[in-house]
Design a protein that fits this description.
The structure is a single chain. The chain has 604 residues and is an alpha+beta fold. The protein has 18 helices and 13 strands. It folds into 4 domains: 89 residues, no CATH class; 170 residues, no CATH class; 140 residues, no CATH class; 68 residues, no CATH class. The strands form 2 sheets. The chain has a 7-stranded antiparallel sheet. A 6-stranded antiparallel sheet has the order 9-10-1-11-12-13, with helices on one face. It is globular, with a radius of gyration of 32 Å.
Length: 604
């Protein structure tokens, strides 16, 4: 290497660099730092920023950079302020003479002490918070997520917005989940290695819709047969079609999962027709169960969109409702051609908010001066007209001003097709976005059912999903359905807590997880984990918008009537009560769910 011209005598191997860093870290470790803790003073900042609190391997009393612009009398380590805090901590134990003597003695030693000795208030608060929350939930967060502690939220029908209020329930989440990750300081060993008798009892209880009430606290979860049977019961769901070599959920954006698989129906028209015929029978059976309130809801998952059918009364709706998302302009035009009346809830909500803002602005202007009322009305009308994009343009595409200038012959005007496309730009730009969600209510849901059965674009004509009918998911049995079980596994890991490690037990559930499954699992884990666990929820993003509200908040009498009417739908009464409350999540979904001392908090 010395003979080469590119050789550098200061070159070090990576192993040497790592060895020097380890040696430096040992030499600058917490053992070499001798600093005495200082009582924190409210409203006074530390002398200097210091090291990052969350940086691993950094000591709380590390060497800090001195601020050259700080005055020793205004800093956190000021002798007078530390003496005052010491006096306040003893609550009157020292009189004025002792305090003056303490201040005088500390003034004499102010130059001998380091201005950065001690622990900052932020570090003390951080350590105090870590003592109360020993477990770090391993939930993945994006860069835009807020890392602050979760704010206690609650639905209006369950508890108030006061932080001290105990939330015994969390809002219903109508989006489909692909994975749940439960973490708790208590072990999940009771959820593994179920006996054959317990599995059989769980399957039988699910098919017969029989539910066993559990005590408020279970001392020995592993020896509780009712708990293990209930866990097996919560993992069951019904699906059509069922192909063992294919995972039929999710369907949107799953072309890679289907590529290379055996699909004998791809080139066989007769086989495709038979598959669609059986699928139509299953869909009709599900709608009949929904209409008679023997099935609370079901999902239709195609390769382009997802449809959620809900029974009357759920999510505050008066009758049967259906949400379809995402949609395209072509699909909406086809639904209009079939006579299906629908609405766009998010667009209507935006329009109402704009009208409310404009009315409030008009009232404020009217209160300021009555003489300018007409002028303000004209301004508001012009403002609202400008926000309507190109819907209110003239037939000539808004180019009448060219005639007024007399240059209409010199400038080439767009043709009729361009004008039409520009007018439809507002509808086209909604395609494949959350704002394109469609709401169908009442008797129009039956027309939507017939439209879906006869819609040719419901099934992919080419690609890896060609000829495969959409996936039907339901919590109860229906014609042609197959009983499936969600996959569950327990893992014990170690997580870093302060300066050491602590054992954290986790339970992972994967598969198409519906709203009732999440609620049933939380009700099961509440007594088993002694009211302390956290959940990381992984949402199928195209279904997050299904939480959009469809009506106003229902009255308590109506909620009781809904629970009574859906008494035979196959769900627990507590789950029906949760699903009957109008949705409050909007177009977002639950991302994290925490239970501390039998009280819920969540983040969406």
């Amino acid at each position: 290497m010395s003979e080469l011209g590119c050789y550098s005598p200061s070159f070090k191997k990576p192993s040497d660099v790592l060895r020097m860093r380890r040696k430096r870290a040992r030499s600058e470790g917490p053992g070499r730092i001798t600093s005495s803790p200082v009582v924190s003073v409210d409203g006074v900042r530390p002398f200097s920023p210091g090291p990052l609190l969350s940086a691993p391997g950094r000591a709380s009393g590390g060497v800090k950079r001195r601020n050259p612009f700080a005055n020793i009398e205004n800093t956190y380590n000021s002798p007078k302020k530390r003496a005052l805090s010491h006096i306040d901590g003893h609550s009157g134990a020292q009189d004025g003479k002792k305090a003056a003597a303490a201040i005088t003695g500390l003034d004499a030693k102010c130059r001998e002490e380091l201005p950065n000795s001690g622990v900052s208030m932020r570090e003390e608060l951080f350590n105090t918070d870590q003592q109360h929350h020993h477990i770090e939930t391993p939930v993945s967060l994006s860069e835009d997520d807020d890392l602050s502690p979760p704010v206690l939220k609650s639905p209006a029908a369950v508890c108030d917005a006061a932080p001290a209020e105990v939330c015994l329930e969390f809002p219903a989440d109508w989006s489909l989940k692909t994975r749940l990750l439960f973490t708790s300081p208590q072990s999940f060993s009771w959820a593994e290695h179920l006996k054959a008798q317990e599995e059989a009892q769980g399957l039988s209880s699910h098919c017969r819709a029989e539910f066993t009430s559990l005590p408020a606290s279970i001392q020995d979860p592993r020896g509780c047969a009712e708990l293990r049977c209930g866990f097996q019961q919560c993992l069951q769901y019904w699906q059509h079609p069922s192909l063992p070599w294919l995972s039929l959920f999710p369907r949107i954006g799953a072309e890679r999962k289907f590529s290379g698989k055996c699909m004998p129906w791809a080139q066989d028209a007769t086989l495709q027709q038979n598959l669609m015929s059986d699928w139509s029978v299953s869909l009709t059976s599900l709608y009949s169960l929904l209409k008679t309130r023997l099935c609370p809801y079901f999902y239709l998952c195609s390769y382009q969109f997802t449809v959620l059918f809900r029974a009357a009364g759920l999510s505050g709706a008066k009758g049967i409702s259906a949400l379809l998302s995402p949609t395209t302009r072509g699909l909406r035009e086809a639904m209009k051609a079939e006579g299906i009346e629908f609405s766009l809830p998010l667009l209507e909500e935006r329009r109402k908010s704009k009208e409310l803002a404009s009315s409030q602005l008009g009232e404020s202007v009217h209160r300021e001066t009555d003489g300018e009322e007409a002028a303000s009305g004209d301004v508001l009308s012009e403002h609202s007209e400008n926000e309507e994009e190109d819907d209110d343009d003239d037939d000539d595409g808004g180019f009448s001003w060219l005639k007024e200038m007399g240059v209409q012959d010199k400038i080439k005007q767009p043709d009729a097709i361009s004008i039409k496309l520009r007018k439809e730009h507002r509808e086209v730009r909604l395609d494949h976005r959350p704002e394109s969600v469609v709401l169908v209510e009442g008797s129009n849901t039956f027309t939507l059912l017939n439209f879906l059965i006869n819609c040719k674009s419901l099934v992919a004509g080419a690609g890896s999903q060609a000829g495969l009918p959409p996936t039907l998911l339901a919590p109860t049995a229906f014609r042609g359905a197959t009983l499936h079980t969600l996959k569950a596994r327990t893992v014990n890991v170690k997580t870093r807590v302060r300066m050491g490690y602590q054992d954290v037990c986790s339970l992972e559930v994967t598969g198409p997880i519906m709203p009732h499954t999440l609620h049933a699992l939380t009700q099961l884990l509440k007594p088993a984990q002694k009211g302390e666990f956290s959940v990381g929820l992984y949402t199928h993003e195209p279904t997050a918008v299904l939480n959009v509200p469809v009506s106003q908040t229902s009255e308590p009498q109506q909620l009781e009537a809904v629970v009574q009417d859906l008494g035979r739908c196959g769900l627990q009464q507590s789950s029906v009560q949760q699903l009957a409350v109008p949705s409050m999540l909007g177009k977002s979904a639950l991302r994290q769910l925490h239970m501390r001392d039998y009280s819920y908090s969540w983040k969406s």
